[in-house]
Structure formats: structure tokens, C-alpha cells
Amino acid sequence: MRACVLFYLLTSNKSSSSSSSSSSSSSRSFTFPDGTPAVFSFVADENGYRVESDLLPTPHPLPAHALAQIEFARQQKAQGQSQSEARYGR
Fold first, then answer.
1. Which of 41, 43, 45 lies closest to 22 in space, CA to CA?
2. Is the whole-model pTM more than 0.90?
């Protein structure tokens, strides 16, 4: 099955690309044997290299307590206070 899918991908994919002086992009698309379409976009620019697709996994949202800790740390940093100063009063 693996070789069959690989052969299918190699023989049925479509691609396009473009570039400028500061960025480059391309895309690849194909259809899985079950009929599911797949589109991947590749971009390299001043923000680095990234791949974009609805098929890529995304991280779970952070829980509320983690967001609260991040906000608390941001507030301390804005006040010029380090973690050890906040923790030990130094």
C-alpha cells in the first residue's frame, strides 16, 4: 500500500511556484486515494519558512491557568520585576 500511495503522489501531484527578491512560495496539491483533496502551501519570506495546510495538526488551546500565568509573568516583566524578586521579595 505504501509504495502504491507514493507512486500515486509522485504521478498525480500538481504544483505551482512564485518568487520575488525577498520571498518565495509554492504549493503542491493532490488527491488521496479515498478522494480527499490535499493542498500544501510553502512560503519563505522575512518571517521565515512555513508550511500551510488544513491537513496539518494544530496545537490544543492553552488552559485558562496557563494563560493566567503567562499574563502574570508579562505584567511582572512590564514592571521590571524578575521571577525571583516576585517570589522572594528581593
1. 45
2. no
Cα(17)–Cα(1) distance, integer angstroms: 30
Contact criterion met (CB below 8 Å) for 26 and 45: no
Each residue's pLDDT tens digit, 2-32: 444 444 444 455 665 565 667 888 999 999 9
Considering the segment(s) 1-57 as one domain, its CATH architecture is Single Sheet (2.20)
Alpha helix segments (H runs only) across 1-88:
2-12, 64-78, 83-88
Q: How far apart are CA 39 and CA 19, in angstroms?
A: 19
Enumerate the domain spans of the chain: 1-57, 59-90
Instruction: Summarize pLDDT for 52-87 with one digit per residue, the tens.
Output: 999 888 889 999 999 999 999 999 999 987 666 666
Residue type, 64: A
